[in-house]
Structure formats: C-alpha cells, structure tokens
Amino acid sequence: MDREQQVSATPPDLKARATSKAAGIPGVKHVIAVASGKGGVGKSTTSCNLALGFAALGLKTGILDADIYGPSQQKLFGLRGKPRQLGPRMLEPLERFGVKVMSIGFLVEEDSAMIWRGPMVISAITQMLREVAWDDLDILVVDLPPGTGDAQLTMAQQAPLAGAIIVSTPQDIALIDARRGIAMFQKVSIPILGLIENMSSFCCPTCNHVTPIFGHGGARTEAERRGIPYLGEIPLDMQIRKTSDEGRPIVAIEPDGVHAKHYVSIAREVWTAIVTGAAHRPPPRIVIE
Ligand SMILES: Nc1ncnc2c1ncn2[C@@H]1O[C@H](COP(=O)(O)OP(=O)(O)OP(=O)(O)O)[C@@H](O)[C@H]1O
To answer: Counting beta carbons within 10 angstroms of the beta carbon of residue 207, is it exposed (0 to 12), middle (13 to 18) or buried (19 or more)?
Structure first.
C-alpha cells in the first residue's frame, strides 16, 4: 500500500498535500525532524545536542530551526549575525562547533513578535529548507515548533524526512501531547525513529539523591505501548540548562562528560536506524472507499 492510499482516510486538505511528493534537498543525504507535542519539554536543547552528537560521530551535520514563533538555535549555538547572501535566492548557513545552523532567529530582531499566518510560516520554512546552501551534509536535524499545526505538517509532507524523533517529559500531560505528534507523523507515513524522555530525573549534585521531579519512565512505557523505539532518557541537570543558556552546549564543551555520552549514544542509535532502514514504520492501514 503506498503513501497516497494510506492517507486516503484523512481530511481532503491533508490528503491533497500529503500526495505532493517531498523532493530531495540538494546536498543533504538525510533529514530528520525533532518534535514535541507540548512546548517547553526541551525539544530545542535536545535537537542542538543531538546535532552535536551526530557531528561527534564524524557526520557532516546541519540544524534547521523551524520553530518560527520561538527560534532558539541561534542562542543555543551562541551565534550572532546574519547569513551571507549567495546569489539572489541562496543563503549561507552560519557554522559553530562543526554544525551548520540556519534559524529565522538570524533574520529577525530578537524581541520582534512573529505575527505570521500559516502560509507565511510555511513559506519561511520551505525557504530555509531549500534556499540555504547546506552543501554536502550527511544529516540535517530539523527542530520543529511544538504541536501538530501547519508548520509541522508542512515539514512532514514537504521535507524528505527519514524519520521523526519525539521528545517528551515523563508527565502524563506531556505524553498525551506526544501521542498526538506520533499520530500526526504516522498519518503521513513518516517513520518514528523513537521517543526521548527529557528531564527524566534530577540528581542532587551535593548528596547524589535522585528525584523524579516530573515522574520517571512514562516515555519508555508509552514507547513500548506504541511499539516504537525508546531512545533513552536525559536527566534534568543544571549543567545542561546553564550551558544551553550560555550558547556553549554541553556536548560541545564537555565531549567526554556523561551527558555528551548520552546524546552521542542516542545519535548513534538514530543514525544506525536511518542507514539500515530499520526506522519504525506504522503498519499499513486498510482503507475502504
Ligand atoms: N535536560 C535538561 N536539564 C535541564 N534543563 C533543561 C533540559 N532540557 C531543557 N532544559 C531547559 O528547559 C528550558 C526549555 O528548553 P527548550 O527551549 O529546549 O524547550 P522546547 O521544548 O524547545 O521549548 P519551546 O516549546 O519553547 O520551543 C530551557 O531553559 C532549557 O535550558
């Protein structure tokens, strides 16, 4: 059953867009999306450190900040300045810690409000995807905005996604939203590369007591229930927060530290799934018309 048949039970608008084939991005071998159903669960921090994890594996890596309403990759990577124009339509991504970065945050003032309607958001994301000189990347990580709106759907349908990673905290409330994200990607037949539990537990730096502030293990249970890979957990840790705020992400500045090892190991697992084609695909649905 092909992709067009699988989406035929979805609303007409979704179906029409789902059938438009996602064309490849010149110079980019694999594109993955990092998504979350809910805001503030650490999706951007995870995308940034995962991208650095791919780079640590020796892969040529880029990151696209598709979070139009709240871009943060420019800050996480400690980058300032505007991308250089290369000809009439092409922009050169900025680069730090060996990762090429493009974000709407480079193009608008930090405190300007992004009051854009859906079509403008879609056009901006499409341009950042296709009118940027990514140039010979093994992997492009796309940091999606939270939720399952227009921007997410556009990426799911217009970018040639190898798969999506869902980030959630262990709480029920975040997992309910994560489920919606999973369902959206499955509806458009994008493989789910796995679920990451962020802010999984807090280890007190003075007494080493571990406190599951947002609960613990919820994402693993959810992944098992849905039959999708569980990629692991990242603790709630002040160093992760502090280094992110300072624009010196933990994988870049402490590459041999315990957190970097976590992120790199997740990156390795994801990369293996991509190149072996082992990414989880939803079972084909029987459609009666
Ligand atoms: N594992 C972690 N430990 C400590 N702090 C974290 C961790 N992950 C993220 N944070 C912090 O939580 C806050 C929110 O993280 P982030 O911006 O990555 O979330 P998000 O899901 O991308 O948010 P948004 O929905 O606004 O895009 C940031 O201050 C970040 O530094």
So the answer is: exposed
Q: What pTM did the predictor assign?
A: 0.87
Map residue 81 onto helix, strand or coil.
coil
Nearest residue by C-alpha to atom 11 in ligand 1: 241
Of 25-34, 52-61, 116-125, 258-267, the poorest mean pLDDT is in: 116-125
By most ligand atoms within 8 Å of CB, the mutation choice from 34, 36, 44, 69 for ligand 1 is 44
Nearest alpha carbon to residue 190 among 36, 32, 44: 32
Residue 60 sits at the vertex; the CA angle it makes with 88 and 96, to the nearest 5 degrees, is 70
Give nearest CA residue, ligand 1 atom 31. 241
CATH architecture of 31-275: 3-Layer(aba) Sandwich (3.40)
Residue with tokens 């809910």: 38
- CB neighbour list of residue 184: distance below 8 Å, 6 or more residues apart: 148, 152, 153, 156
Beta carbons within 10 angstroms of residue 75's beta carbon: 19
ipTM: 0.97
Beta-carbon contacts of residue 2 (< 8 Å; ≥ 6 apart): none
What's the CA-to-centroid distance between 37 and ligand 1, angstroms?
Answer: 14
Please, what is the end-to-end C-alpha distance for the chain in angstroms?
14
Minimum CA distance residue for ligand 1 atom 6? 241
Residue among 36, 43, 44, 45 whose CB has most ligand 1 atoms within 8 A, to mutate: 45
